[in-house]
Amino acid sequence: MILDELLRVAHTGAVALYIGGAIIVTLGLRRAQRFIPPAQAAVVGNVVGTLFTYISWLALATWAGSGYWLLARRGWASPTSPHTLFVDPELLKEGYGWMMILMISSWLGMLINAVLITFVFRPRLVRRLEPSHASPQMVERLQRQMMVSARMVEALALVNLLLCLAATLAGHRFFEHVYIYTAS
User: Fold this and answer.
1) In angstroms, rounded to a whole number, what is the distance separating the alpha carbons of residues 92 and 86?
2) What is the pLDDT along the chain (184 residues), one digit of tens a residue?
3) Residue 43: left if φ>0, alpha if ψ -120 to 50, beta else—which one?
4) Are 122 and 61 in contact (CB under 8 A)?
5) Are 17 and 55 in contact, with CB atoms under 8 Å apart?
């Protein structure tokens, strides 16, 4: 019983940490950077982006681990059913089972976005040219790549926020039904 409560606190805390950070970074920081000089905005964005990357990966891992463990403790996790995202197929006979599939699918979408942001687009934003290779064409090409990467990070961050909200709403519906109406 106490372990279940601790798992729910860890799960809810990870969700809140991820949503809060996503809102601050996506809606707050990106908009605020427009009001400071570009060089300072780049430094602030890089530092905050790096810190948020660590926090978001920790939150995503805690979110998944505690969620799966909660399902396993209730007897609903089934590693033998990967076609239902490791959810016991019997659970899908109820509407809240499909909410859980939506919740897990949204989390997987966030994971894919996190991989793209962390390992593809953020490294492109911090690229530097060697002074010996800094021809005008190279500088222009690098600037274009950085602009595209910045737009992609911003778009993926917004998609991530929407997926996070979808997962949270589905999770609310699932946990409302499972833990409130069927509490023992």
Assistant:
1) 12
2) 788 889 889 998 999 999 898 888 888 887 888 888 888 888 888 888 889 899 999 999 999 999 888 877 777 766 666 666 677 777 777 777 788 788 888 999 999 999 999 999 888 877 765 666 667 887 788 888 888 888 888 889 889 888 988 888 887 766 666 654 454 4
3) alpha
4) no
5) yes
* The two structure tokens encoding residue 37: 């000089």
Dist. CA 153–CA 48, nearest whole Å: 14
Residue with tokens 């919740």: 103
Alpha-carbon distances, residue 83 vs 80, 87, 92, 117 (angstroms): 9, 9, 12, 27
Token pair, residue 4, equals 């279940």
| Cα 96 to Cα 171: distance, rounded to the nearest angstrom | 9
In this structure, are residues 42 and 73 in contact, taking their beta carbons and an 8 Å threshold?
no
Q: Are 86 and 78 in contact (CB under 8 A)?
A: yes
Residue 104 half-sphere exposure, CB side, CA atoms within 13 Å? 18
Residue 44 one-letter amino acid: V
